[in-house]
């Protein structure tokens, strides 16, 4: 059986309520907040065609934010130091894992008067908009998106909201594999060759929830110094949302269409601008039951268009600066599924055994939207379309418990990708290594490592043997252990996502 497995153990900080102690003479309005996170990841039975079949990585993220609030104005900055260690030379780790000493925020903010709450931010900033599927400040990922420009946030007395922005997205550096492995410090940059703009309107009290209308534009200019797909696209969308609540039905329905022009690749020789026509749909309906562990059951559907065989149009949806962990499972060394060329349906169950813990389980079936495009985030492709549409089944489970309120949380998770015909038969699909006739087991900890042959193993080691066998049969196995120490609640951070 060809399959993929993801296991996660995440020990991290929950939302912190108080801030780092400051000297007695520190001025009123000064806030210092910080977090340190360490995460270990392992993957085996790689699904990507051009990455290590097995990989191990330790990622560290240290953040510190300082802000002074002068009443109607604020000035602040935030530093993220994101590093990775121990990954293979052909690891899939990239700018999503490494961005050392990155100044992700350096801003001045102003509160404008009136009955409504209006805030303007100028400088470099991070932000979440709407569902976070198109614009997000990352939490699970080791690095985050940031923007340099201006944004306006307006909130009415009834909860209605308006957001407007123009910005130059931050280009994370380094972006070459050698410097990424070395955790080289390079100053992230922004350029007028890449501009992002748009806005959203959220109206509350619609169908028992809220209705959001938005539109985002991306303008990109190709150059010899930075080859790109020369994207000039606009993405209007609509979202209807009702948050989960005990004893009630909830829903989240969102759709966006993308048009403009883009090139198929970033190759210097590709100078053909294609008309863009792409879209994505998310639909989710659930119910939270008002008894016991307050279980919530939901069904989910996602579709993101893929590029067709036509040479005159480009149809692969671009998720812009969105997050995906909350819809499609863990990212990092895993991250098989994203909002590109996929159709997926599934079901989710969530329970809360007590006030400090929660459990989530989810199943997804996965298909390609276009037979001739690469499947989602895997890079596996059959340009002839002869490998079919079925990509496989993904199973995910997660347990979280707050150990120290406001400081420390344990997060243990598992995702299993059972590869379908496409991920096994496509021309560039990685083929699983042939297992040894005497299955070997690796048992290791921080102090020692030893290997046992299958004929020596004890019954207590059976699970380890099965685990290693899954890896050799084509399973993607990834383990994460994350320890975070936090002081203060970082603005904009959504710990659960």
UniProtKB/TrEMBL annotation:
<feature type="domain" description="Alginate export">
    <location>
        <begin position="30"/>
        <end position="428"/>
    </location>
</feature>
<protein>
    <submittedName>
        <fullName>Alginate export family protein</fullName>
    </submittedName>
</protein>
<dbReference type="InterPro" id="IPR053728">
    <property type="entry name" value="Alginate_Permeability_Chnl"/>
</dbReference>
<dbReference type="Pfam" id="PF13372">
    <property type="entry name" value="Alginate_exp"/>
</dbReference>
<dbReference type="InterPro" id="IPR025388">
    <property type="entry name" value="Alginate_export_dom"/>
</dbReference>
<feature type="region of interest" description="Disordered">
    <location>
        <begin position="427"/>
        <end position="455"/>
    </location>
</feature>
<feature type="compositionally biased region" description="Low complexity">
    <location>
        <begin position="440"/>
        <end position="454"/>
    </location>
</feature>
């Amino acid at each position: 059986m060809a399959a993929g497995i993801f296991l996660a153990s995440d020990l991290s900080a929950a939302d912190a309520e108080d801030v780092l102690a400051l000297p007695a003479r520190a001025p009123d309005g000064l806030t210092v907040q910080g977090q340190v996170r360490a995460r270990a990841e392992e993957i085996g039975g790689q699904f990507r065609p051009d990455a290590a079949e097995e990989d191990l990585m330790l990622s560290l993220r240290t953040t510190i934010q300082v802000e002074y609030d002068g009443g109607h104005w604020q000035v602040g900055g935030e530093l993220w130091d994101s590093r990775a260690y121990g990954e293979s030379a052909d690891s899939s780790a990239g700018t999503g894992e490494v961005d050392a000493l990155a100044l992700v925020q350096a801003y001045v903010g102003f509160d404008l008067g009136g009955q409504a709450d209006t805030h303007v931010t100028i400088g470099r900033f991070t932000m979440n908009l709407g569902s976070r599927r198109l614009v997000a400040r990352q939490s699970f990922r080791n690095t985050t998106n940031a923007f340099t420009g201006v944004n306006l946030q307006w909130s009415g007395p009834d909860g209605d909201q308006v957001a407007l922005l123009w910005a130059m997205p931050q280009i994370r550096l380094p972006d070459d594999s050698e410097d990424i492995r070395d955790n080289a410090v390079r100053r992230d940059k922004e350029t007028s060759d890449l501009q992002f703009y748009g806005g959203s309107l959220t109206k509350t009290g619609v169908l028992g929830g809220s209705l959001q209308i938005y539109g985002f534009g991306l303008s990109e200019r190709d150059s010899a110094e930075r080859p790109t797909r020369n994207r000039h696209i606009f993405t209007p969308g609509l979202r209807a949302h009702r948050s989960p609540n005990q004893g009630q039905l909830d829903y989240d329905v969102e759709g966006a269409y993308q048009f403009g022009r883009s090139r198929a690749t970033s190759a210097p020789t590709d100078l053909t601008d294609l008309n863009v026509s792409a879209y994505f749909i998310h639909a989710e309906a659930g119910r939270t039951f008002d008894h016991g562990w307050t279980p919530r059951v939901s069904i989910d559907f996602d579709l993101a268009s893929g590029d067709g065989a036509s040479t005159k149009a480009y149809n692969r949806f671009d998720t812009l600066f969105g997050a995906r962990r909350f819809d499609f499972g863990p990212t990092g060394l895993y991250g098989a599924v994203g909002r590109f060329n996929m159709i997926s349906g599934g079901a989710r169950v969530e329970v809360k055994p007590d006030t400090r813990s929660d459990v989530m389980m989810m199943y997804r079936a996965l298909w390609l939207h276009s037979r001739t495009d690469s499947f989602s985030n895997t890079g596996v492709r059959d340009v002839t379309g002869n490998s079919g549409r079925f990509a496989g089944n993904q199973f995910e489970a997660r347990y979280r418990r707050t150990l120290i309120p406001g400081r420390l949380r344990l997060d243990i998770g598992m995702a299993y990708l059972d590869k379908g015909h496409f991920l096994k038969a496509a021309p560039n699909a990685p083929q699983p290594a042939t297992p040894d006739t005497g299955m070997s087991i690796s048992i290791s900890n921080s102090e020692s490592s030893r290997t046992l042959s299958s004929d020596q193993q004890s019954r207590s080691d059976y699970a380890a043997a099965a685990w290693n066998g899954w890896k050799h049969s084509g399973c993607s196995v990834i383990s994460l252990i994350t320890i975070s120490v936090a002081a203060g609640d970082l603005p904009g951070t959504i710990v659960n996502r």
